[in-house]
Amino acid sequence: MSLQIMFDLIMSGLCLGGIYALMAFSLSISLSTTRVLNIAHGGFLILGAALAMLLTRYAEIPLLYALPIFLFSWVVLGYLFEIVVVRPLIGKSPEDVLIGSILITFGFTMAMDAFLSFYWAKFVDPTPTFSLTYRLPPLRLLGYTISGTRTFIVCFAAALILGFHCLLKYTGFGKAARAISEDAEGALITGLNPQGIAVKVYICAVLTAAMAGAFYVLLNPLAPYASFHLTLIALTIIVIGGVGSLPGALVGGVVLGLAEVMTAFFISPAWSPMTYLLIFFLVLVIKKEGLMGGAR
Amino acid sequence: MLELTDISVHYGDLKSVRNVSLQVKEKEAVALIGPNGSGKTTTLKAILGLVPLASGQMRFLGQEINSLPSYRRVKLGISLVAEGRRIFPRMTVRENLELGAYPLGGKADVKGQLEWVYQFFPILRERERQVAGTFSGGEQQMLAIGRALMAKPRLLMLDEPSLGLAPVIIEQLYARIQQLKREGLTILLVEQYVSGALELADRAYVLETGTIRRDGVARDLLEDPEIQRSYLAICEEGGGLRP
Fold first, then answer.
1. Contact at CB, B88 and A192, closer than 8 angstroms
2. Taking the model in full, what pTM does it have?
3. Cα A86 from chain centroid?
């Protein structure tokens, strides 16, 4: 096997890993600050991909205008999602929040999936799959070629993760979100407003998921019913990395991304779900609080 | 400044606070004493809005606060140093303190407030960058008080600040609280360490099974034989808390 192929594989793995990390962290932070387990999270990746396709491929809006429309729509949708779906759960007892959130967001996912596939098939494309192409010229480095698109995705994912890191570490909002995820009642005593923080967290989380979705379909096509599958991957990464941990989500995402790409190449794509269940199992056996669980 | 009229709080089927009325006047230190489970902590939680009121009325600075969410009450000037401190253990000392000023919003003079808090507790300045979870109990208590002070409170409520601390540390802590009182802060103190609380306070209420049994000038209660028998003796036996 040539070094070029290895290079390509690692680049693909990092790409997928970066997307997974974004998907997992955005779910993880919304879980740790509100204790609401959002099953619909994977659905936002699909909706994000669908909107990106609708804007660029079907409406043929140039990227310069499509991008702000995309971002603005997701800020509004994230806000609405928090108000309508999440807000009624906040302040309830922990058991009610957990069970309520699973029921409500699971129902929301099913409605969203059915709505999307039905209307997409009816108005846009009778066989709905989401994919995007966006070609950048390949880069050359030391005699090897690297896909321009993949480099772009990796850089963008890295920039977003760095942005999240700075947001959490240096801004008042970030500190408040960390405080709430450490000790919700302690945060209440300190005078933080959980609802105000939940709104901002959900806007960030939903927006990030939608962007991750738009990137994902640059790599692989997505079916409209894949949302639950994506949520499961995100949950696996969260458990591997530790709840509420950004470094954990990054490491977990990259490990899973690389494992998926390698398995698909060396064995068969059909085996890739097996790989991350195996990793999941091993991490739970060796360190049950997750790789970064102790030090988030 | 703070006026509770006939408040009741239910915990499940239990009525844990029944028809409690109490007042705290400006620049006064008031102690709330009583045995375990008598509703002292619940009263403080109700004042901050952490538990819902079943009946009664609460006013702070003349304003009714019954239905205000906790963060609005903190902004009005009510701060609580909770039992068990409830600091954020994975965050640094400085981050903990900065969060204390968060309810004040963008207008907060965080630097100035930090300076003020550091004057009271110089150790917090020295250990600014340390992760709060590595602090000893006494240091965590100072941090918890410091965080409460960051919100510029008019009324500082302290729930069992002496809990689990060594006598020497308790003495230092009470010296600080005394200093805060001299600076004109109004204090509402809940304590098991009754002798210390009554020495610090101007007035006191005795809470038993959710109702107020007695109230009066703290010094008189300290010398009252009944109080001495029921509370001070227990305290002395229970680990020699008297510094």
1. no
2. 0.88
3. 18
A87: domain range? Answer: 17-228
Say if A157 falls within a structural domain: yes
| A259 inside domain | no
Question: ipTM of the predicted structure?
Answer: 0.87
Q: For the segment A96-113, what is each residue's pLDDT rounded down to a tens digit?
A: 888 999 999 999 999 999
Question: Would an 8 Å CB–CB cutoff place A150 in contact with chain B?
Answer: no
Query: What average pLDDT does range B141-160 have in this prediction?
Result: 94
Is there a domain that residue A267 lies in? no
**A285 close to B (CB below 8 A):** no
Residue A185 lies in a domain: yes
- Give how far B113 is from chain A: nearest CA, Å: 15
CA distance A107 to chain B (A): 31
- Hey, are the CB atoms on B102 and A192 less than 8 Å from each other? yes
Closest CB from B50, B89, B98 relative to A175: B98
Catalogue the long-range contacts made by A109-112 (C-beta closer than 8 Å, 24 or more residues apart): A109/A39, A109/A40, A109/A42, A109/A43, A109/A227, A109/A228, A109/A231, A112/A40, A112/A43, A112/A47, A112/A227
Q: How far apart are CA B88 and CA A241, in angstroms?
A: 21
Q: How many domains does chain A have?
A: 1
A171: contact with B, CB 8 A cutoff: no
Q: Which DSSP helix (H) or strand (E) runs through A200?
A: helix A194-219
Token reading at B218: 């703290």
